[in-house]
Design a protein that fits this description.
By secondary structure, the protein is an alpha/beta fold. 32% of the residues lie in helices and 12% in strands. It contains 6 helices and 5 strands; from the N terminus they run H-H-H-E-H-E-H-E-H-E-E. Strands 2-1-3-4-5 form a 5-stranded parallel β-sheet, sandwiched between helices. Helix 6 links the parallel strand 3 and strand 4. The longest helix is centred in the N-terminal third of the chain and has 17 residues. The protein is globular and about 55 Å long.
């Protein structure tokens, strides 16, 4: 069995659990950062090809993690950055709706606010614990609903969503399903090829 414990730390005798705030960098990542910093100190040793090789290698690695083609992966600096790319990349009409969950993470909600000045309406589901979220989404979708966006894993409660059920409802209603995977990707398995998700966006530091 792989000794994953040896890849992290040292924690000076402490136990670090707050990975939703800041996940500790594994030692292999720390070593690569040191190598990159050394190259920036002596840029004459940094080849032009490295500007292509490093992102390509990262896309292949991330593709393996979520079962996606490297061509399907866009690299950015945060979840919000990826969400902004999506929002700016879609054509919007006055009266379009975006469906969100009340109380979701600000990063999952705030970027959509930019669309309100274009006449796009934000509709919120106020979750009822007695009703499964896929059913609530189905009840809330209208003919104007273009997108449903929410967070996969809640770091405050540990709750994880039924993304297959949600994706099925969205697909049946021709609604784009956007998932914030920041709390779950890397901690839980996900197969974007066989899961009904249209867009998965995630930060890496958690």
């Amino acid at each position: 069995m792989t000794n994953w414990r040896a890849d992290f730390g040292p924690f000076d005798g402490q136990v670090w659990l707050n990975c939703a705030h800041q996940g500790p960098l594994p030692k292999p990542a720390v070593n690569v950062i040191k190598e990159a910093t050394a190259l920036k100190q002596a840029p004459h040793r940094l080849s032009d090809q490295a500007f292509w090789d490093v992102p390509d290698r990262l896309k292949r690695t991330l593709g393996t993690l979520v079962n996606a083609s490297p061509d399907e992966i866009v690299l950015g600096n945060s979840f919000s950055y990826g969400l902004h790319l999506l929002i700016r990349g879609l054509n919007w009409n006055v009266g379009d709706e975006v469906l969100l969950v009340e109380g979701d993470f600000p990063a999952t909600i705030l970027p959509w606010r930019l669309l309100e000045e274009q006449g796009v309406r934000l509709q919120f589901i106020d979750q009822d614990a007695a009703i499964e979220l896929p059913q609530q989404i189905s009840d809330a979708i209208t003919a104007q609903t273009r997108v449903f966006c929410t967070t996969w894993v809640d770091s405050f409660t540990g709750r994880r969503l039924d993304i297959n059920g949600i994706g099925g409802v969205c697909n049946e209603n021709d609604v784009i399903f956007v998932l914030n995977g920041s709390q779950g990707v890397g901690a839980r398995p996900i197969d974007v090829t066989n899961t009904p998700i249209d867009v998965l966006a995630s930060c890496g530091y958690k």
